[in-house]
Design brief:
Length: 143
């Protein structure tokens, strides 16, 4: 998991953690209309999806969004590779409890990527540049 501070993000910015594969997923803090939200989104395709359909689905879809009212949040991604599940689930912390947000997301290994799943901490803007955010307090599942 990770602690995210987003008090200096700008309207439309995202700061969070992602699980990267050809069909990535992420959980992030975002600012919309002056309100802080936590959202999950990503690319949803399956092993049966054709290359043309994959190109069509490169725009991520939002799976879930909740208003948090806070600019400091704890987020985490949990991967499950047991028995070929290949899933990632995203959580946020509320009053010392981890709350799932969005559906479990399948991380298919296809030949569009020649490496396994990677995590990424990210910050990106959609409206204007210049916002700031920070990450700290990394911890593993068993901590």
């Amino acid at each position: 998991g990770i602690h995210v501070t987003g008090s200096l993000i700008k309207e439309g910015d995202y700061i969070g953690i992602s699980a990267f594969l050809g069909n990535y997923g992420m959980i992030a803090l975002t600012l919309r209309n002056g309100e802080y939200y936590i959202c999950t989104q990503g690319i949803t395709v399956s092993n049966d999806t054709s290359q043309a359909e994959r190109e069509e689905h490169k725009i991520p879809e939002e799976w879930a969004r909740i208003r948090t009212g806070k600019s400091d949040v704890h987020l985490k991604a949990v991967l499950d590779y047991t028995q070929q599940r290949d899933l990632v689930e995203f959580y946020y912390m509320e009053e010392d409890n981890w709350i799932p947000l969005g559906p479990p997301h399948s991380l298919y290994f296809r030949l569009d990527h020649f490496c396994g799943c990677r995590f990424g901490l990210f910050y990106y803007s959609t409206n204007s540049i210049g916002g700031k955010g920070s990450f700290d307090t990394f911890w593993r599942k068993d901590e």
